[in-house]
Every structure is written in C-alpha cells, then in structure tokens.
Amino acid sequence: MSKSSSDKNQIVFGYWAIRGLAEPVRLALHYTKTPFTDKLYVQGEGPEYSRQEWLSEKQNLGLDFPNLPYLFDGDFKITQSKAILYYLGRKFSLMGKNLNEEARVMMLCEEAHDLRSALSGVCYSPKGESKEERKKFVETTVSEYLQKLDNYFGKYNTKFAVGDAPTVADFQLYSYIDSALLLDDEQSLVDKYSNVKRFLKTINELPEIKDYIVKSHAQLPINNKVAKFGGQIIQNK
Amino acid sequence: MAESNADKNKTVLGYWAIRAIAEPIRLILHYTKTPFTNKTYEVGDGPQYSRDQWLSEKFKLGLDFPNLPYLIDGEFQMTQSRAILYYLGRKHNLMGTTPQEEALVMMLCEEAHDVRAKFRALCNKPNGGSGAEKKEFLETVLGVFFKQLDALLSKQNRKFAVSDQPTVADFLLYEYIDYCLSFDDEHKLLEQYPNVQRLLQQIQELPELKEYIATTHAQVPINIKSAKFGATVIKQK
C-alpha cells in the first residue's frame, strides 16, 4: 500500500530529532507499518542550544498541555510519552491478551521509564562528562535493572516481554536499554545477562523494524544537543 | 456485605504509611468498595529514617520488580503506581468509555504526576523550599497546570474530568492537586480556576469517598518522615 499524503497526515508524531522518549512510539508505528509524519524539531547549536524551532509552534498546535512528544490522530491530540504509547498499544492490539498481561506491559514500561529518567539525569548533568560517573551508573543503576529484568525473563520464559507476541513493552524496553548501554564503554555489561541479551537480539532482528533501527541509530542521537553525553551520534560496535 | 478477612486478604496494597503516590489507588479501592488490606510500612524516626520495616520484606513477597507501592490481587502481583492505577481502572471501568477518553485519562494522570514530582523535589530540599521557591512553584508550575486543566475541563464540559462518570484521572487529580495546594498558604490560587475548583469539590463530595477523605486527610501525612515539608499532617481549611 503506497503512503499517500493523506495517510501520512492522519497520524503526526512530534518530538526532537533524537531518540529520547520518542523511540518506543516510533518503533510501534514502524512495526505496525502505520503511515505517519515523523515531525522532528532540531535544537540549535551551543552555546545557546536554542529551542526556538519548537517554541515557535508550541502554543499554536491545539494541544491541551503543550509538550513534546505529541501525537495527532486525525483531530485527536495528546501529549505524554506513556499515554501516547498505551493509546497506540490499544489501537494496534499491542497491550497483551488480557488484563493481567496488560498490567505487566505497563509495569515494564514504567520500570523502563524510570531507567530512562535516571539515564537522562546523568547525561544532562555534569556527571555526563565524567567517565567515572558514567561507569558508576552502568555498574550500579543499569546493572541492577538488567539483573531484575534478566530474572523476569528467566521466570516467564516467553519470546517477548509479555507473552509470545510483541507488545509496546518490547519497544520501550529495547529503546531504553539500548540507550543506557551506550554509557558502557567496554560494551560488555549485557554479556552478563543472557536473557536480556537474547531479548535485545530478538527485537533488533524483527523484520518489520530491523532496517528502521539501523537507520535510526545512524541518524538520531539518544539525547538533545545540550546534553553532556549522547547529544551526538555514537558509533556502536 | 460484611468484609471477611478472606476478601480483604485477596487484595493487598502495600505502601508507606503516607498518602503520596498510593492515595489515588486507595481512593479507587474505596470508591469501588473493594475489600482490601491497606498494608502500610513505617519509616523510623530521624536521623536514620530506617526503612527496615519495608526492606525486611521487600524480597520475600514474590514481586518481579520489588518496589512500593505494590498490589497483590489474588495470585497476581504488580508494582509501579501508574500501572496499578490503570490496571484497576480497566478492571472497574474507570478508564473512560472510548479509546480517546482513555488516552485523556492517562495524559491527565501523567501531567499531574510531573507537576507532583516537581512539588516533591521542593519538599525534599533542606529547608522544604524557601518562600520564594514555593511562590515560584505556585505561579509557574501549578498555576500553568491549573490554567491548562481549567481550559480542558471547560472544553470537555462533562460532570467529571473526562466523562460523566468518574475515571481514575479524577481521583489522581484530586489527590495530587490537594497535595500541591498545601504550599498555597493563602488558599487563593484555586479561586482563579473555577472548573478545577468544581472538579475537586465533586470528588470530595462523592458519597462513596466523603468520609474516607475526611479521615485520611486528618490522620495521614502526604510525605515521608525524611521530607522537610509535609512529613506530618497539615491542617487544611
């Protein structure tokens, strides 16, 4: 099916030209082959790091709580990354098969979001410039999180995060773990957590999104330009 | 229907003996007249503020991601306050009646949570927030949120925030706004936002909740003992 302009205009997803908090939603849209406009706002260079590209539009988009990311679905407009993710999850049947699975999907998304918040806390502060602080973050926060997740995968033993079909939790977990692991200079931490490693590989190789993932990694930094770490593209091994 | 111990033991909500992020969940359980055990953990007195009462149980409850709050619902267990809120919301039909209403419910909960997080950051500062910082919060954070919320409520024009029936957003908004308003010594801020004021009154006067709210506000602090603001019950007008 060719993507007509009107198809792409039905869904508009707005965010900075980075992976940040948007990538899980982009993965869900690509996975479901949903035509959409990927509206990207570019932050200016230092030292000002101007947000003008966004600020000049912010109050004029008809958003109740103007913020990034935002989603337009026809006339319907919302903000808040998790509300958008769960809304699309519901729309595309990516929220698990029953109430309990759905609850687990959301619990995993919230846990992953906490990791991402901690990562942002490091990257956007002076700690982001310190190799020692980044190493400490990897060895404590990231490591503890991966241990819990590894135990979780060991316990439930399913192909995806919740059950044997993808849910939005897979995209959230993949994006945020992938981002956090960029702070691991030696790229060896994930080898200690075989279930997590296997999970990341499963998502990375999904035919619907593998090409998009490669492109995104090559073109979008994880953080905004103003960040002390991750504001530029980092080559992964 | 008399609440048997068996009924109460089926559903257990575990959290600190404070309102904070568990209270919206407690409001839902009371509103839906769900028998439950309100398991609370006490923090020790200063200067240690020992968390041993929780830590001694934390890894023995069968939780995948041990944390507070937790919900045990029969054989099912989960953590993460918003995941619990939306799970109970789905279970009890308190998430709106359409996908768009559900998305609005979640957007409101996420927005209110962001506002609350900024409030809490101030409460944890060494002086509990200076007069100037509190004023700035009221004007720039809470005031802006109220303005946006007031406009949304006016646009929605329903009995509650999202529809003519309560949703989990109403309970969370009520609790978190009440919490943030404890900074507003003059009780003037809300007068500028009549739709917000009306919503809070609607919730406070729900027959299912009136007495519970009056009791809990009189007896349970909003914040944890180690916080510099809100660690003891605040008398409200």
TrEMBL record, chain A:
Annotated GO MF terms: glutathione transferase activity
Transmembrane regions: none
Enzyme Commission number(s) of this protein: 2.5.1.18
Domain GST N-terminal: 9-96
PROSITE patterns membership: GST_CTER, GST_NTER
Gene3D superfamilies: 1.20.1050.130
Any matching Pfam family: GST_C_3
Group of enzyme by EC: transferase
Domain of life: Eukaryota
Gene Ontology biological process: glutathione metabolic process
Keywords of this entry: Transferase
Residue ranges occupied by any GST C-terminal domain in the UniProt entry: 98-222
Catalytic reaction annotation: RX + glutathione = an S-substituted glutathione + a halide anion + H(+)
Protein family membership: Belongs to the GST superfamily. Mu family.
Function, as annotated: Conjugation of reduced glutathione to a wide number of exogenous and endogenous hydrophobic electrophiles.
Name assigned to this protein: glutathione transferase
Native organism taxonomy: Eukaryota, Metazoa, Spiralia, Gnathifera, Rotifera
UniProtKB/TrEMBL annotation, chain B:
Alphabetically ordered keywords of this record: Transferase
GST C-terminal domain span: 98-222
Molecular function terms, GO-annotated: glutathione transferase activity
Gene3D superfamilies xref list: 1.20.1050.130
InterPro entries in the cross-refs: Glutathione-S-Trfase_C-like, Glutathione-S-Trfase_C_sf, Glutathione_S-Trfase, Glutathione_S-Trfase_N, GST_C, GST_mu, GST_superfamily, Thioredoxin-like_sf
EC number: 2.5.1.18
GO BP annotation list: glutathione metabolic process
Protein's UniProt keywords contain Magnesium: no
Superkingdom classification of source: Eukaryota
Reaction(s) catalysed by this chain's protein: RX + glutathione = an S-substituted glutathione + a halide anion + H(+)
UniProt enzyme class: transferase
Domain GST N-terminal, first and last residues per copy: 9-96
Function: Conjugation of reduced glutathione to a wide number of exogenous and endogenous hydrophobic electrophiles.
Family according to the record: Belongs to the GST superfamily. Mu family.
Name of this chain's protein: glutathione transferase
Protein species of origin: Rotaria sordida
